[in-house]
Amino acid sequence: MNLTFKKCTLSDLDMLTNISRQTFIDAFEKENNPEDFKTYIDIAFSKEQIKTEILNSNSQFYFVYSKSDLVCYFKINENEAQAEPFGKHSLELSRIYVLKAFQGQNFGAHIINWIIELTKKMGKTWLWLGVWQQNVNAVKFYERHGFTKFDTHSFYIGNDRQTDWLMRLDEV
């Protein structure tokens, strides 16, 4: 599979904001309280918030293309940008979303393998992520790629407290 990975810059802000909002809505809107969900989307995926995240030197966003088609975006965090204080040897995969039209075509497997290689190149010894425990398909996907559950943390959609599994891949 021939994929191209492009690190996002401020010039990608509009497209990144749009894809961030749309993929999150596609993935989770139907399982959440509409008012809580709208509040979360309006804050977490506002243009101002995405701009702040792009400008954070400890975070990186990437677009993934197949030919000329944008199929995915993801975000990684290191050091103090990580949602949990796991230190300088870990890398957090904060977001990874394949657009609806490209799901089920094995893009995710190729993308996660690329992220694992990037983790190695960055000198990190382990990769971790948080995944909503009700997102059974995502949990199974990560388990198939060697991730194991090691803890939980709370994630809020508006006022709705949800639980994420923390999953890690050691010795990347």
Short description:
This protein is of the alpha+beta class. The chain has helices at 13-28, 34-44, 47-55, 107-121, 136-144, and strands at 3-7, 59-66, 69-77, 90-98, 126-132, 148-157, 160-170.
Number of helical stretches of at least 4 residues: 5
Q: Give the C-level CATH assignment.
A: Alpha Beta
Strand order, largest beta sheet: 1-2-3-4-5-7-6
* Straight-line N-to-C gap: 22 Å
The total count of strands amounts to: 7
Sheet/helix structural class: alpha+beta
Q: What is the total number of structural domains?
A: 1
What value does the Rg take, in angstroms? Answer: 15 Å
**Overall pLDDT:** 96
Please trace the helix and strand order, writing H or E for each element.
EHHHEEEHEHEE
**CATH fold node name:** Aminopeptidase
Please, what is the oligomeric state?
A: single chain
Q: What does the largest sheet look like?
A: 7 strands, mixed
Could you list the spans in which at least 5 consecutive residues all have pLDDT below 50?
none
Any guess at the CATH architecture? 3-Layer(aba) Sandwich
What percent of residues are in strands?
A: 25-35%
Helix content: 25-40%
Overall geometry comes to globular
CATH level 4 superfamily = Gcn5-related N-acetyltransferase (GNAT)
InterPro entries: Acyl_CoA_acyltransferase, GNAT_dom, MshD_Acetyltransferase
Domain N-acetyltransferase: 3-172
Protein name: Spermidine/spermine N(1)-acetyltransferase
GO molecular function, one term: acyltransferase activity, transferring groups other than amino-acyl groups
